[in-house]
Amino acid sequence: MESNNTGVRVIIVGAGFAGLTAAIECHRQGHDVEIYEKFAELKQLGDIISFGQNAGRIFHRWSNGSVTERMDPLSIKNKGFNIHKYDGEFIINQTHPKPPKESPIINGHRGELHAVVFNYAKDELAIPIHLDSRVKEYFETELETGIVLESGEKISGDVVLGADGVRSKARELVLGYEDKPKSSGYAVWRTWFDSKDMLADPETAHFCNQGDTFQGWIGQDVHFLFSTIKNGSDCCWVLTHRDLADIDESWQFPGHLPDVLELLKDWDPMCTKIVSKTPPELLVDWKLVYRDPLPTWVSTGRRIALVGDAAHPFLPTSAQGATQAMEDGVTIAICLRKAAEKAEAEAKSQDAITAFQEIRYERVKAVQKTGETTRDMWHKTDWVAVKTNPDLVKFPREEWIHGHDAEKHAEEVFDEVVKGLREKARI
Ligand SMILES: Cc1cc2nc3c(=O)[nH]c(=O)nc-3n(C[C@H](O)[C@H](O)[C@H](O)COP(=O)(O)OP(=O)(O)OC[C@H]3O[C@@H](n4cnc5c(N)ncnc54)[C@H](O)[C@@H]3O)c2cc1C
């Protein structure tokens, strides 16, 4: 599906999943869209990232499933999630029915999946993506908005989407102040590495030589998740633990294996075996920061909107951060098209921006909360109760999150939302 040209000029800052999805969806809805990104070249950074069915549904609509076809070989295919108590006691194998091909679950390497989406936007849809273009300022008048690059170049449009991640500059403009992240009291050690040393050890080879596997160990204030990927050829683990140290949001903060091994010394010895196979230089220490929900994602002139992590960072235990960033892009592209189709000329793009926030805000807040509830549910597990009901430690997968169709929803509610906002403005 591609719509007629709407003439709406959209400038997007940031080519992460939020920016790329917003650009692809704006292209589908007929807007003129360009991306400005500070990185100079595409690098495959990061490790494991999760996309729920509510993201799979979005990916699948791009060129009739050709993007999800490319992602499929990069995505984990396991036979369920084996959940253990921290001492090694096996609790339950959590399985799910295979999702339909129209809404797949995709879990894989962030850099590899990002490259698929980036190349699709750039090469197949020919969306202009300006690399090495760091945005240093945003501006907004009655009639237009835009950005100023570090080079001094000024670019104007009808709407700017700040998809510039957790350290967003656009957020400062929207809020009128710099909002500092707080420590969540937790950090994760995370890594991704080749399986060769795991395969060479008879005690760990079984995780890798029978396709993909997914294991979890749960203890007081700590959980350890370990996956094998791409038919067992790669390994990745993420360990969430209490950490009150200075905070940093960088993905490249180096971790120290002896710290991890010390924390796991009373745990199932299998955890130590797995961690010991990690090349030390590939260990990342990522402090999990927290932000109270922002009071608004929209600038005072209603021409600049924040999307993705710039508007709402997520904890990894929600497994929804990238997916919610994608839902933002779908929603805003539809709001802009529906507003452009309206007969009256008044404040079209501004209406679209306000409606976007209205449609998304409460849903995002509720999904964000699941990151805390799942973490706390695991970290405070009542093991006596689990003896009679092992389901208590299953990872929640809720229909209101995964069954959501952001495109259909925005199409259905837009008119009603705009009507409500106008009535509110008249009061
Ligand atoms: C390098 C990197 C590695 C990551 N690895 C993982 C991972 O392993 N697992 C995981 O779950 N999540 C990871 N994330 C975060 C994850 O991608 C996001 O939480 C989620 O996908 C939402 O994406 P986003 O587009 O809102 O933000 P991001 O993915 O952070 O993208 C923001 C983009 O904006 C660009 N940008 C920022 N400021 C400017 C500026 N002034 N001018 C121009 N461009 C700017 C950044 O370079 C970046 O490309 C990573 C993010 C990055 C940037």
Spatial strand sequence of the major β-sheet: 5-4-13-14-15-12-16
- Which ions, cofactors or small ligands are bound in this entry? flavin-adenine dinucleotide
User: What is the CATH-assigned architecture of the largest domain?
Assistant: 3-Layer(bba) Sandwich
Structural class: alpha/beta
Number of helices: 13
CATH superfamily of the largest domain: FAD/NAD(P)-binding domain
**Domains counted in the coordinates: how many?**
2
Radius of gyration, whole Å: 22 Å
CATH topology of the largest domain: FAD/NAD(P)-binding domain
What overall geometry do the principal axes of the alpha carbons give? globular
* Strand proportion: 15-25%
Domain FAD-binding: 8-341
Protein name: FAD/NAD(P)-binding domain-containing protein
GO molecular function, one term: FAD binding
Keywords: FAD, Flavoprotein, Monooxygenase, Oxidoreductase
Task: Give an overview of the whole structure.
This protein has 427 residues and is of the alpha/beta class. It has two domains: 9-78 and 98-179 and 292-426, FAD/NAD(P)-binding domain, CATH 3.50.50; 182-290, D-Amino Acid Oxidase, Chain A, domain 2 (2-Layer Sandwich), CATH 3.30.9.30. It has 13 helices and 17 strands. It has helices spanning 17-28, 53-61, 66-71, 110-124, 170-175, 196-200, 257-263, 269-276, 321-341, 348-379, 383-388, 399-402, 406-426, and strands at 9-13, 32-36, 48-51, 81-85, 90-94, 106-109, 129-130, 135-140, 145-149, 154-157, 159-162, 182-194, 214-219, 222-229, 234-242, 284-290, 304-306. The strands form four sheets. It has a seven-stranded mixed sheet with strand order 5-4-13-14-15-12-16, with helices on both faces. Strands 7-2-1-11-17 form a five-stranded parallel sheet. The protein has a three-stranded antiparallel sheet with strand order 8-9-10, with no helix packed on it. α1 (17-28) runs parallel beside α9 (321-341), α9 packs antiparallel against α10 (348-379) and α10 packs across α13 (406-426). It is globular. It starts with 8 loop residues before the first strand and ends with a helix. The relative contact order is 0.16. The mean pLDDT is 93. The structure holds flavin-adenine dinucleotide. Flavin-adenine dinucleotide binds at residues 13-19, 36-39, 45-49, 110, 134-135, 163-165, 169, 251, 308-309, 321-322, 325. Keywords: FAD, Flavoprotein, Monooxygenase, Oxidoreductase. Residues 8-341 form the FAD-binding domain.
